[in-house]
Amino acid sequence: MKLIPTVIKLHQKSRFLEIGFSDGTSFNCPCEYLRVFSPSAEVRATDEPVDGKAMVNITAVEPMGSYSVCLVFDDGHNTGIYSWETLHDLGSHYEKNWDNYLSRLKEYGLNRGDENGALLTQAKTVQLHYRGSLVDTLNTSAETVTLPISITNVSTLLQWLRAKGENWSTAFADDDVQVMINKRIVDLEEPIESDNEITFMPLDDY
User: Fold this and answer.
1) Which pLDDT value is given to residue 119?
2) Is residue 68 part of a domain?
3) E strands present in 4-84
4) Using an 8 Å Cβ cutoff, are 171 and 137 in contact?
5) φ/ψ bin of 65: left (φ > 0), alpha (ψ from -120 to 50), beta (otherwise)
6) Are both 73 and 137 inside the same structural domain?
7) Distance between CA atoms of residues 31 and 11, nearest Å
8) DSSP string spanning 82-107?
9) Is the domain of 53 the same as that of 140?
10) Which CATH number characterizes residue 179's domain?
11) Quick one: 93 and 128 in the same domain?
12) Under DSSP, is residue 193 helix (H, G, I), strand (E, B) or coil?
């Protein structure tokens, strides 16, 4: 079946690209991931992994005919042409690709780097608190969880929670919850950082 994109949406605040396809699959790919796995010749020509791109962002998504897009990154990289098949493959194999990438960074003595050049970890640990009817539905009022790197903002966190099981998909259907991070009401694009305290409150309870 020919792949056709149904959604291509850049979330610059959270630094990820949302991609949906005609086969029903959808992915949230971090900008860093798309940068270090760029299909450009200059990236593929070297055996050494691309390092220091933890804070990279996409500044533009430029259509290239009806089969691909060029992703323009704020570090000046603009030669990667991503076909629909390439984007689908990157989304489908994210976890495996990312684990391999981290292993190769370690092998070469390199790191992802933040704005201060420090080593970044792969995951974030956060505290989740549930209020109102969510407590009965989920049979818990709080938990501490470690999130994969693909969870970059509130929207991707809700998607991850829905995938935990039937009760979770019911509890968080249609984003019908109010979310607070560190006691501040936030929207779906609010970034998530390690050690955040995140509270979910059903809108129907208020």
Assistant:
1) 44
2) yes
3) 5-11, 16-21, 26-30, 58-64, 68-73, 81-83
4) yes
5) left
6) no
7) 9
8) EEHHHHHHHHHTHHHHHHHHHHHHHH
9) no
10) 3.10.20.30
11) no
12) coil
Q: Is 96 found in the same domain as 10?
A: yes
Residue 99: how many other CB atoms lie within 10 Å: 11
pLDDT above 90: percentage of residues in the chain: 48
CA atoms 80, 85, 86, 92: torsion sign: positive
Domain tally, the chain: 2
- Four-residue CA torsion sign, 93, 99, 102, 103: negative
| Type of residue found at 117 | G
Side chain identity, residue 189:
E
pTM of the model: 0.64
Separation between Cα atoms, residue 126 and residue 193, nearest integer Å: 8
Residue type, 103: S
DSSP class of residue 119?
Answer: P
Burial of 67 (0-12, 13-18, 19+ CB in 10 A): exposed
Which residues have a Cβ under 8 Å from the Cβ of 11 and sit 6 or more positions away? 17, 18, 152, 153, 155, 189
Paired with 200 in beta bridges are 130, 179
Interatomic CA distance for residues 14 and 44, integer angstroms: 27
Q: Which has the higher per-residue pLDDT, 114 or 159?
A: 159
